[in-house]
Amino acid sequence: MSDQIHSFIKLFQERSELLEIRGCIRDGDEPIVLLARWLTESEDHLSDDDISILADIGGMLYQAQFQERKFRPHT
Q1: Residues 6 or more apart from 46 whose CB is under 8 A from it?
Q2: Which three-class secondary structure state does DSSP give residue 25?
Q3: Looking at residue 72, what DSSP letter applies?
Q4: In whole angstroms, what is the distance from residue 35 CA to residue 28 CA?
Q5: What angle do CA 44, 59, 30 make, to 5 degrees?
Q6: Whose C-alpha in 13, 30, 49, 71 is 20 to 30 A from the C-alpha of 23?
Q7: Domain ranges, ordered by start, for the chain
Q8: How far apart are CA 69 and CA 29, in angstroms?
């Protein structure tokens, strides 16, 4: 991976740690909603490739949330 990719992964890790320190642990739906909201607001400024990549990321988040719900004990 390139240095730029590593720097973004490091940024994601640092942001995750900061959110945890702040007590801002999100449920699985919130990142999906935030991404969808941002895409809605930014759609006119994004290329079709950008939207496709971001839709793939949203799909992966959605799959991860589905798997979490699937294996979560029912209460």
Answers
A1: 39, 54
A2: coil
A3: S
A4: 12
A5: 80
A6: 71
A7: 3-71
A8: 11
* Dist. CA 52–CA 60, nearest whole Å: 12
pTM (two decimals)? 0.74
- Among the listed residues 8, 39, 74, 40, the one whose alpha carbon sits nearest the alpha carbon of residue 16: 8
C-beta separation of 50 from 65 below 8 A: no
3-state helix, strand, coil in the chain (%, to 5): 80, 0, 20
Residue 65 confidence (pLDDT) above 90? no
| pLDDT, tens digit, 9 for 90 and up, residues 11-57 | 999 998 998 898 886 677 888 999 999 999 999 999 999 999 999 99
